[in-house]
Every structure is written in C-alpha cells, then in structure tokens.
Task: inverse folding
C-alpha cells in the first residue's frame, strides 16, 4: 500500500507520541482535525494505526505482510462463492458433459431430490469415462462419480483461506459450499480455484483505493 506524504508524516508523529489525539496530531502538522480525518480513517482501516476512543491513536507496529495476512484471513467463503451447478445421480455421463459445457464449469455436483450432496464429477472423471467404448447416454453419473462421504466440503462462514488449503491438500479444483439439513448436506454454492484468483486480484484492487 502506497501512503501519501501526509500519511507518512502522521505515522512519524504517532510512533513516538502515541497514544495521541487527532487534535494534537493536527496541531503538530498545522492543519485542522477535519482535514486529517480521511487520512486517519485510512491508516486505521489499513491496520497501521489503532484508534482507542477517548485515548487517541497509536502505532500498531504491524509489518506490511502481517497486515496482508490479517486481511486475507478476513475473507469469507460466502463473499466469493458462485452458483453451484448440479445434476442428478441418474443423469447420464453424456448429459453431464453437455451440462459442463453449457454451464461453463469444471466441477459438477451430484444431488438427490432434496438438493443434498451425493457426489462430485470433475472434467477428468468424464474424460476417463469417455475413453471406454460404452455408450455415454447409457452410463448414469453415480457409476463414475466420487461419492459421499469422500467429498471435501466447506461452509459459507468458513475463511476463504481454509477452503484454499483444502483445494491444495486434496489436489482438487472446487469445493461444494454446503448447509446441514435433516436430509443431509444441501449444496448452496461452490468455490473453485477461480474464486481464489478473484480474491487475489481484489486484494490488489483494494490496495489501489488507498493510493
Ligand atoms: P480434474 O480431475 O478434472 O483435474 P479435480 O482435480 O477437481 O479435477 O478432481 C480430481 C478428482 O477428485 C476427481 O476424481 C474428482 O471426482 C474428485 N473431486 C473433485 N472435487 C472433489 C471434492 N470436493 N471432494 C472430493 N473429491 C473431489
């Protein structure tokens, strides 16, 4: 994050003098408290300064990478999840391939009548099935899918970074976002490697806001 000259000056004042009130910082800079308000807000939001009510501002001493880690840990699955694309167990492998193309996704979830998760189909699962000589319209999805309980899932309140770790540890491209119901795990979303790429790009865009 690039700081303005004034923001750097504020930090240099707060470092040795904190906790110090906004009023006092303004006085030292020969400015009004109102002029400083946006800069103090930015420095507090970025985690560089901390504001204690009725005490003042102090320097947190956190390094750039500590601040970045904190921001990454705040990201939630629900803010990056996409619409899940699901098929039924009895749908054919041919239909699964068509759905994958039409919906432009790399992972399909297989669900029962209650929208509860029973399996997962990846691109390679479908390629593998296509290598056989059988008629793809005659093979139901449940024959080739990875099935419960061997499916790695996440919940909407989970930290996005935990979901990313599951993708890496299990060498998979996507996770179903599920919600517990009496009938089983209802599929309410999906997070994929693309969600992680989006989050990475957004973090740098956020940073630009402070330039
Ligand atoms: P691809 O095989 O097309 O590269 P993946 O790496 O996502 O895609 O899938 C690898 C294998 O893991 C496939 O057999 C797939 O069925 C299975 N798989 C995909 N997602 C999950 C998941 N969330 N939980 C368990 N297994 C999964």
Result:
């Amino acid at each position: 994050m690039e700081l303005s000259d004034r923001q750097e000056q504020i930090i240099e004042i707060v470092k040795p003098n904190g906790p110090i009130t906004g009023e006092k910082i303004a006085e030292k800079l020969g400015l009004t408290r109102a002029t400083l308000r946006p800069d103090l807000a930015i420095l507090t939001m970025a985690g560089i300064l901390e504001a204690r009510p009725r005490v003042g501002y102090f320097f947190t001493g956190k390094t750039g990478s500590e601040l970045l880690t904190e921001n990454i840990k705040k990201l939630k699955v629900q803010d990056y999840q996409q619409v899940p694309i699901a098929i039924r167990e009895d749908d054919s492998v041919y239909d699964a391939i068509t759905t994958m193309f039409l919906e432009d996704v790399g992972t399909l979830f297989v669900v029962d009548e209650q929208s509860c998760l029973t399996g997962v189909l990846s691109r390679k699962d479908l390629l593998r099935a296509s290598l056989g000589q059988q008629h793809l319209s005659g093979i139901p999805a449940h024959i080739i899918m990875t099935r419960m309980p061997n499916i790695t899932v996440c919940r909407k309140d989970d930290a996005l970074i935990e979901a990313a770790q599951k993708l890496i540890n299990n060498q998979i491209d996507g996770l179903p976002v599920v919600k517990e119901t009496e009938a089983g795990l209802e599929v309410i979303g999906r997070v994929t490697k693309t969600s992680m790429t989006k989050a990475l790009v957004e973090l740098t865009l956020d940073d630009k806001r402070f330039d």
The pocket of adenosine-5'-diphosphate is lined by residues 107, 120-125, 146, 150-152, 171-175 (CB under 6 Å). The first strand starts at residue 49 and ends at 52. The mean pLDDT is 92.
